[in-house]
Amino acid sequence: MTSSTTEPRQCGCPEGLRAASVSRRSLLAAAGALGAVATIPGLAGPDFATSLAFAGTGYTGDTLVVLSLRGGCDGLSLVVPVGDPAYYAARPNIAIPASRTLGLNSMFGLHPALKPLKPIWDAGHLAAVHAVGQQTPTRSHFSAMEQMENAAPGSHLRTGWLDRMVGASGQPGTFSAVTVGSSAAPSSLMGPNPKISMRSVDEFKLSADRNSGDLAKWTKMLTTLYKGSPAVLSTPMTATVRALSATSKLTAAGYKPANGAQYPTSGAGQALRDVARLIKSGLGLRAATIDVGDWDMHVGVGRSDKGWMFERLTDLGQALAAFWADLGSYQTRVSLVTLSEFGRRLAENASGGLDHGLGNVSLIMGGGINGRRVYGRWPGLGQSELVAGDLAGTTDYRTILAELLEKRTGVATATVFPGLASHRLGLARMT
After folding, report:
1. Cβ–Cβ under 8 Å, residues 14 and 274
2. How high is the pLDDT of residue 39?
3. How does strand 102-103 pair with strand 109-110?
4. For labeling, which of 12, 20, 192, 431 is most exposed (least CB within 10 Å)?
5. What tens digit of pLDDT does each residue of 62-72 get?
6. How many angstroms from the chain centroid is the CA of residue 183?
7. Helices 308-327, 267-279: crossing angle, 10 deg rounding
8. What is the mean pLDDT of the chain?
9. What is the mean pLDDT of residues 351-363?
């Protein structure tokens, strides 16, 4: 896959810039066998990484797509609380005027740059959950991402929630877990279940075979080499060979998005294009996670019609709208959710930016979604309602994921999200 051609902005906080400069491989090496560390791609730039988990044969549930907005996206800009006067008082220079938003209800409006998503909302396939947070909130990129990927606060689990999801779905198949766009899996996939890494579908080849193109020769050679070897060695080889065979067929067939869908050339656009391609391939894609960075806006957020936030949301809206159009009849078998490790502070800072906060917003899109509604308990933005100057997180993000897994994929979530309360929002319908 290619990353976005947009130059990364070097405006994030020192922690965010430091995190963006550390490769996944070095983080994983430092983690050792425990794997208790977050992998953080694209924090200070629009680069992305995509991870994919495939079910075995016979799976009939939705593909869950988790779009992670890395760097701490400002949820109050995505879904604007136009009915809360404290929002405008706290942001005299960067607030989105109510007249510019796309009205959702009397309290909330969608950022104007997300206009391509409004028809999906009106059709009942897009919803939002506001004031989303974590059980043990933190304003540290590293800590917040690690906790979100682990999704098991208060437990001793070292695995990632997506790895546990794959394990809960039965015997993993060849494509039980695949990372696209990176040489190593994100921490949500850390655990005992097998995984394969690739830059993209089209670039997934054996290094030694990039010029010869003779996959059959290498398959025979590797099969002979590993014959009779322990499962710990032979199983990854077999999975890799099978994956190479499957992706080589996709590459040979080529891909043209359906229904006139036009993806932006950014990392987000190309990642979603590949996910749509895999969903429609018949390989049994069960879950995909896409990481998109450049949301750490400590300076120069901009206004409702230009600037950093407007540019990023324009790209995001176009990418999501293209993905939805491209899916066509597959829309009924896909659920997508956006997450970010934390939100931003209510009040703008002296640099026209927003520092690390807590509560955030999630968008949920899918054919099985009860859309056209903003879910969750809105706590308000008055001084007595804030948590140290931040929007309170009144809905645990795991509640959203758990409902999507339970109702749309048929996965029991007791082992995926241990200790999570049984309350659900009613945002999804049973498959």
Report:
1. no
2. 32
3. antiparallel
4. 192
5. 999 989 999 99
6. 18
7. 20
8. 84
9. 98
CB neighbours of residue 4 within 10 Å: 23
Can you tell me whether residue 147 is helix, strand or coil? helix
**Are the CB atoms for 67 and 336 separated by under 8 Å?**
yes
Q: Hey, which residues does 50 pair with through a beta bridge? A: 180, 290
Q: How many CB atoms lie within 10 A of CB 220?
A: 12
Q: Are strands 48-54 and 63-69 parallel, antiparallel or unpaired?
A: unpaired
* Distant-in-sequence, close-in-space partners of 380: CB < 8 Å, separation ≥ 6: 84, 86
Strand-pair category, 79-80 with 63-69:
unpaired
Number of neighbours of residue 232 by Cβ within 10 angstroms? 7
Buried b (16+ CB within 10 A) or exposed e, 257-271: beeebebbebbbbbb
pLDDT band at 2 (very low <50, low <70, confident <90, very high): very low
Look at strands 48-54 and 178-180 and give their pairing.
Answer: antiparallel
Lowest mean pLDDT among 10-24, 214-228, 402-416: 10-24
Which residue has tokens 């400069």?
A: 21
